[in-house]
Amino acid sequence: MLSEREVSAAVGGTAYGANGDKLGTVEHFFVDDRTGSPTWVSVTTGLFGTRHSIVPAVDAAFDENDGSLRLPVTTEAVKSAPQLAGDHLDPAEEAELRRHYGLESNVVQDTGSGPAAGDPGWLPPVPPAADRHDRDERDERGGLDDTAMAAPTQEMSIVPPPPAVDEEQHTTQTDGGMTRSEEKLRVGTERVATTRARLVKYVVTEEVQITVPIRREEIRVEEVPLDAPDLGPGESLVGPDDDVVGRGAHHGAVGGLPDEIVLHTERPVVSVEVVPVERVRLRTETVQGQEQVTERVQREQIVVDETPSPGLSPRRS
Q1: Domains and CATH numbers, the chain
Q2: Element (H, E) at 11
Q3: Tens-digit pLDDT profile for residues 167-182
Q4: This model's pTM is above 0.70
Q5: 143 in Cβ contact with 150 (< 8 Å)
Q6: Residue 87, CA distances (Å) to 14, 52, 268, 302 in order
Q7: Which of 90, 97, 102, 12 is CA-nearest to residue 53?
Q8: How far apart are alpha carbons 297 and 14 in whole angstroms?
Q9: Cross-strand bridge partners of residue 51
């Protein structure tokens, strides 16, 4: 049987079956209306945890190491369990679950712990209604059955309870003192489940601005002496083997200017690729804190109650 602390700690943990297979996540417990003990547990199953299955929790075991709950059922039985909704189970729903899991109803049998036959306090058993009817018929016919006769009545000694003792009077008669009591506030802590956390990854779109250096060709007139050596064409964005119209390919005359020159420039080319940048994982840590607790307590006070005797004036201080 799970304790209250284990029930609180198991909520939100992982539930495993009899073969060690993972069943799902523990959602909440169903307790007995009379005893308050946990009898059934709701487990969320399925790929996204949308299916709710109810599993017997009487023989469940809680693992302190990983906070998981061990249930003596198979995965197939949990998947085929009746789908019941609500936070409370009525007797008909419990009977349906017991039939599904093959649980027999608990029958309280007589263990013979009462007084034995012939002992003080023993009473003969009352025969069933059918036996009493047969016995009445035999009495009417005048027949007697020795085996149906009840055992002789036994006398039961009654021990009177001890007389009540006035504690205040008894204390006064012994030492003339009085005991004063008061309430003390006792505060403890318990561990309960408050929040369920899980990792969820989603895409965020944002704008990124980057400055890219680019180059472009411009026309520049350069004056050189007639006897200066020809250094060839100037710096260009294209190679000398590129098929470009102009660049001295067509001359109007020998030593003249070209017909046309094609200028080039660079432009940004944008591409996007997905690269891993960070690894994220979950872990828990204990944070120490303080909380003020306020509660009312009672305490006794002792005063002297003086009653003057008749015919005497009260005492003056």
Answers
A1: 4-101 (2.30.30.240)
A2: none
A3: 555 444 556 778 888 8
A4: no
A5: no
A6: 20, 12, 63, 51
A7: 97
A8: 42
A9: 45
